[in-house]
Amino acid sequence: MFSALTEANRSHRADEMEAPPAPWLQRFDKPSRLLLHTLTSGPRGALAAFRALQRIRACDEPGQAFHWQIFTETLCAEEPVLRGPERTLTLRPILLLLPVLCQRNLFSLLHIVQGSMPKDCLSQLLQATRKDPSPDLWVQALRDLLQRGLREERSCWTPLPLTDTCRQQLKTLCQKIVGGTQSKPDLERKQSWFIQEHPGPELWPGGDATDSASQLRKRKQVAEESLDPEGERQRKRSRLEEDELDLEPLAGCAFVKGAGAREDEIGIEASGHVSIQSQTRGANENTQPDAIMETREASQGSQRDAAAKVPDFIQMHVPRLKMLLEMESNQTDGTAPPELQILHECTPGQLEGLCSLLQLSECPERALVHFCTWLLAVTPELSYTNAAVLTEQLFLQRVLSLTQPASRHLMAALTSFCSKYARQVCCALIAPALQAPGAGPEWTKLVRELIEDSLEPEYVRLVLSQVLEMPWSEELITVVQTLLGRQVELPPELFNLLVLKLCPLAQAFAKSMNYTKLMMAVLTMYSSNITPAHQRHLSGALDLNHTALRKSLQACLEQMSPR
Fold first, then answer.
1. pTM, full prediction
2. Can you list the domains of the chain with their CATH numbers?
3. Where is this region: Disordered (predicted)?
4. Buried b (16+ CB within 10 A) or exposed e, 243-278
């Protein structure tokens, strides 16, 4: 096979040496010429062309945009050429006049971008290559793979028609499934799969079942509408109004009344409260989609299920990616293997399936360090959602299964990954790990180390805003201590929320030293943030403290000069 490829390559090169200069190159517009020159740059021309294509697409200058339609039509246009020893004049597509190296790199590029380029353009290019009487074997293999993927994609979306007999049998079967005297919830549960796959009413069972089907369709529409950004914002606003009612500035707390505070004197204004809630929730809307923030099930399903949702053009990279994971490489040249560019072509669901096929959550931690080093070198940067999926797949299960201190390899991998994708680590790892049931000391210890060593101030504030929305435990209080220990500047709204969270917990943690130390940190590190209104609330909370540090904290609070 290798000798055949070599011989074919020599033959094509001989033809190219005899060919005159290419005047047809001027038919291409400027972006297309740039792409062709990049494709002929060498063996890694496909990767270079992919990066050039992304830069071209990002350019907004007139005449600089890249259009697949124009590029394809020009490549498929026929050009008269003289071929063979008899110099016979023939018409050949410009695509077949390109150097063999350029053709190989072009089809490798098509494998990378086939998910985003128009399918009719891809079909035209594949048809044009079939006009070559002696094709390069490498190009032919790439073409056949593309053709197979295109054919399978079309067949996947082509519904199979049902005959009248089959439809009647299916209807009868469904009536048997949902038949009998059953409650409507049971009917809805049994029919839900059928209604989703066959929305046509002619197949629905009659009677009450039809009503159930109608209700199911309405519920499905409501669920789809809830995914709309405006609908999601409205839902979050409703939730915010409920939270505002629950977090009235401590008017009903016994210690506030005991401290002599009046409702009209409460200086932690609701406007400030709403502002910070809107700020933190708005940040969550923009940067942490609900699908990423939710803690997925620990089991990711079988590899067969994962393969079912990963397209063939992605699955073909699995053997090579597994080989990279198994390599004991110490590559430090700052570049990533070209195989990792496939990460840009995956949707979040496909990437999750790919991670399951690669068993990333179970790979050795030494290999995890090398893999994260390569991920940092991938250019351009991964999208937010894909980086969040990788964060979860690489680290979440490892963190949740810790029963002893994290190894140095795990910490090295996590620290390096966090240096570039800190927001994803906060939203897809730290927050789910802290919210997971039964959070152990090793989990929180790892989180505290990340906060101390790896997070910039803006992400410290992000984690604090997330923690303020969680129910607190002794372990979580130690995390808050670490967050405040960074002594980052807190906006007044965020500090208001911190006080609002701390004071109502005074009764529950009256004998907790961790809670008492946290109060000490607030009084000493953030004394300049404390207003007279804060002093009244904190004083009421300290009245309920039953630890040996109570008097010291009260003295510290009394010494503060009013602002």
1. 0.50
2. 2-156 (no CATH), 290-558 (1.25.40.480)
3. 1-22, 197-243
4. eeeebebbeebebbeebebeeeebebeeebbbbbbe
